[in-house]
UniProtKB/TrEMBL annotation:
<keyword id="KW-0679">Respiratory chain</keyword>
<dbReference type="GO" id="GO:0005743">
    <property type="term" value="C:mitochondrial inner membrane"/>
</dbReference>
<dbReference type="InterPro" id="IPR023184">
    <property type="entry name" value="Ubol_cytC_Rdtase_hinge_dom"/>
</dbReference>
<keyword id="KW-1015">Disulfide bond</keyword>
<keyword id="KW-0472">Membrane</keyword>
<protein>
    <submittedName>
        <fullName>Ubiquinol-cytochrome C reductase hinge domain-containing protein</fullName>
    </submittedName>
</protein>
<comment type="similarity">
    <text>Belongs to the UQCRH/QCR6 family.</text>
</comment>
<dbReference type="InterPro" id="IPR036811">
    <property type="entry name" value="Ubol_cytC_Rdtase_hinge_dom_sf"/>
</dbReference>
<feature type="domain" description="Ubiquinol-cytochrome C reductase hinge">
    <location>
        <begin position="47"/>
        <end position="109"/>
    </location>
</feature>
<dbReference type="GO" id="GO:0006122">
    <property type="term" value="P:mitochondrial electron transport, ubiquinol to cytochrome c"/>
</dbReference>
<keyword id="KW-0496">Mitochondrion</keyword>
<dbReference type="InterPro" id="IPR003422">
    <property type="entry name" value="Cyt_b-c1_6"/>
</dbReference>
<dbReference type="Pfam" id="PF02320">
    <property type="entry name" value="UCR_hinge"/>
</dbReference>
<keyword id="KW-0999">Mitochondrion inner membrane</keyword>
<keyword id="KW-0813">Transport</keyword>
<keyword id="KW-0249">Electron transport</keyword>
Amino acid sequence: MANEVTDQKPEVASSSLFSSFMSFVLPTAHAEADDGDKDGKDDEPEDIAPAIREGCEANECAKYAHHFQACQEKVEAGKGWQGEDCVDEMFHMMHCVDACAAPKLFKKLA
């Protein structure tokens, strides 16, 4: 019987020794089960930023959004110049949306 124990491959024996040592040093963590919302409410409030940004894009920044959309349609139709990508139009629209939405968002936070 003593021969059977010594006939084990050294890497298998050291592997199990290593894994048992590592499980002792670094125990396995388990996540808690999620029982769902007990009162039907979410823990986090709804993000109002997308709605405010969409409103700014549709109203105050409509002319920039129109230029960006027209550029995209032109490029997708293959009528733009070679290498045209509408990045300038997108940046103008996003700058307008950011400038419009920021004060409205900060009012909601205060």
